[in-house]
Write a structure and sequence with these properties.
The chain is of the alpha/beta class. The protein is built from twelve helices and ten strands. Helix 9 links the parallel strand 9 and strand 10. Helix 8 packs parallel to helix 9. The longest helix has 21 residues. The chain is globular. The protein binds D-xylulose and manganese (II) ion.
């Protein structure tokens, strides 16, 4: 396998081994305990674990801070014994009753306070797990109907929350994971451009960056590789959630490259060409197995997505750059289109 920049490190979250429930039907696979999931990582080719705060410490709202820290320390021991690294902690700000109307942007000030307090707890958990990275998927920050929220106020409320987190811990790095809709109709930070713009409103823009998820970019009508490039141009691509998405539907979290191989190739290419990973960034996956998948094959989507990434890396390495440059120079983009397709299909050009 040809390599340009060397090795990549891969990560995923325990929620990516899941039981297959959807809004229309119950679970179809047996749950797998976190301790069992952690034992599977290395064999699948992964060294990094992404956590929601309550993946790390279940039911944390019902526990004292001391108890939460104790359980986080026990988890850190388990990670160490499996040779795994925590990539980030993401506060789950969309599940509790307090987040029904949004988290940082709820119309109830008590609920906004809950969201900020919970984010601080996530920072404490992250520190125990040995990472300074907090991912914010702003799931419910937006609206179902515009009149319920003041959109300018919402932006400033999120800035206030980010500032509270940045003040709380001078080492924390906040990665915003934008998504244009679902569960809300209209997210207030729908794209990586919005996320990066938001970073400059905070008290320390250098500590606020982004995580680009392929499916979320596609849902916003953008090309994920362009979104990644945009964040790279700002030195703010601090993580990715590679997956795939078939058009504008619900968030599908399909295996990487499974809907559009060429689009996946261009994501691998932009990461590779701009030395993604050089500063310790992980290649994260956010993929779900199809509901039809049986118990025994419940991790294939993870191993397959990683293999597809590595195979596409080979396609990046073996691309004929001189030919590409000559076709660009001649402005013969139809011919370039054909060459790229031949290259991806492994056909003689
Ligand atoms: C939601 C999503 C989340 C985040 C982590 O669509 O992608 O899994 O990645 O909270
Ligand atoms: Mn994601």
């Amino acid at each position: 396998m040809a390599k340009i920049n060397g090795e990549y490190r891969f990560s995923f979250g325990p929620w990516n081994i899941h039981e297959g429930e959807d809004p229309f039907g119950p679970v179809v696979r047996r749950p797998v305990a976190l301790s069992r999931k952690l034992k599977l990582y290395k064999g699948l080719g992964f060294d990094g674990v992404q956590f929601h705060d309550d993946d790390a410490v279940p039911d944390l709202d019902s526990k004292s801070h001391e108890q939460v820290m104790k359980e986080a320390r026990a988890l850190k021991k388990r990670l160490d014994s499996e040779g795994l690294t925590a990539e980030f902690v993401a506060p789950r700000l969309w599940f509790a009753r307090e987040t029904i109307d949004g988290a940082y942007t709820s119309n109830d000030p008590k609920c906004r306070r809950y969201a900020i307090d919970r984010s601080k707890t996530s920072i404490d958990i992250a520190n125990v797990l040995g990472t300074n990275r907090i991912v914010l998927w702003l799931a419910r920050e937006g609206s179902y109907i515009r009149e319920t929220k003041n959109p300018r106020e919402e932006v400033l409320q999120i800035v206030e929350a980010l500032n509270a987190m940045l003040d709380y811990d001078p080492n924390v790095r906040i990665l915003i994971e934008p998504k244009p809709n679902e569960p809300v109709d209209s997210a207030i930070i729908p794209s990586i451009g919005h996320a990066i713009g938001l970073s400059y409103l905070t008290c320390d823009p250098a500590r606020v960056g982004g995580l680009v998820e392929s499916a979320h970019s596609i849902l916003a009508g953008f090309d994920p590789s362009d979104d990644m490039a945009y964040a790279l141009a700002h030195d703010k691509l601090w993580s990715v959630h590679l997956n795939d998405q078939s058009g504008l539907k619900f968030d599908e979290d399909k295996s990487f490259g499974s809907a559009d191989l060429r689009r996946a190739f261009n994501q691998v290419r932009v990461l590779e060409e701009y030395s993604y990973g050089r500063n310790g960034e992980w290649v994260g996956l956010d993929v779900k197995a199809m509901r039809t998948q049986k118990q025994a094959g419940n991790t294939k989507h993870l191993a397959n997505s990683r293999k597809t990434f590595l195979m596409l890396l080979d396609k990046v390495a073996t691309l004929d750059r001189d030919l590409e440059a000559a076709l660009i120079k001649a402005r013969d983009y139809e011919e370039l289109d054909r060459y790229i397709l031949c290259h991806l299909m492994g056909e003689k050009y």
